[in-house]
Amino acid sequence: MLIWANEKEINTEMVNTMGIMYGKEFELKCFKPWELSIILRQIQRHFGNRKDISILDFGAGASPFGAYLNYIGYHFVTCLDIRGGWHPEICQETYNRKYESWVTYKKIDVTLGYSGKHDVIFSASVLEHIAGDKAQILRVLSKSLNPDGLFIHVVDYGRGVDFKDLVDNCGIPISYKPEETPGCKEFKSLPEYAWVQNNESRITFFNERGD
Q1: What CATH fold (topology level) applies to the domain 7-208?
Q2: Which long-range contacts (CB under 8 A, 24 or more apart) does 162-166 make?
Q3: 44-52 average pLDDT score
Q4: Per-residue model confidence (pLDDT) at position 113
Q5: Interatomic CA distance for residues 83 and 89, integer angstroms
Q6: Are 163 and 193 within 8 A, CB to CB?
Q7: What torsion do the CA atoms of 195, 49, 40, 148 make, to the nearest 10 degrees?
Q8: Mean pLDDT over residues 70-85, rounded?
Q9: With CB atoms 3.0 to 4.6 Å apart as the test, which of 19, 80, 107, 151 could cross-link to 26 if both were Cys?
Q10: Domain boundaries in the chain?
Q11: pTM of the entire structure?
Q12: What angle is formed at CA 119 by the lines to CA 118 and CA 121, rounded to 5 degrees?
């Protein structure tokens, strides 16, 4: 399955609520409206009305998306970011105070390991900014994914990410067959940019193109 994100995919209620949460510094592009809308839709399709699932937002930064998930009823949300990243001032206290939320916020070096179990692990336009071994980070995170969970990663189009390497080395057994992937037919000239799923719908690579 291949999804190209566009304006039709945007969840306007989500974006508007996040804008109110964020405040006067709000910029639509900073909220990754296409990516987050698709991620939310995948969570809702996979788990239905369940709100007792554990969700990990990898590379959360100062995004209020974790707080929005909390706001719409998901009680077990963890935001994870690297130490000394773009938002050094953000911690659990400042995040929850700003967004009036009840999420767990952690800052760790994922390459050294991560302990936790989650039904959903996702990142939105994060992997392309990581200079190190992206596949290693996914391997570490994949060990924290519960059976039949969702492993979703949205990557900006044309940012030099080797999708096949990520798919082959992420630690979850999947098949990489873009030519057999629904929706990929019209993009056969760029099969390396496909996102794929394994037979349990546990891993998804989105390639976002905002047009």
Answers
A1: Rossmann fold (3.40.50)
A2: 162/192, 163/192, 163/193, 163/194, 163/195, 163/205, 163/207, 164/192, 165/134, 165/135, 166/127, 166/134, 166/135, 166/138, 166/205
A3: 92
A4: 87
A5: 10
A6: yes
A7: -30
A8: 89
A9: 19
A10: 7-208
A11: 0.81
A12: 70
Please write the tens of the pLDDT for every residue from 154-209: 776 556 677 667 777 777 766 555 555 444 333 334 434 444 333 333 344 444 33
The predicted-structure confidence for 92-103, as pLDDT tens digits, reads as follows 999 999 999 999
d(C-alpha 9, C-alpha 139), whole Å: 29
- Cα dist. 169→120, 140, 163, 164, 172 in Å? 19, 11, 10, 8, 8
CA separation (Å) from 193 to 54, 71, 86, 129?
29, 33, 27, 17
Mean pLDDT of the chain: 76
**30, 76, 83, 119 from 108: Cα distances, Å:** 23, 19, 6, 20
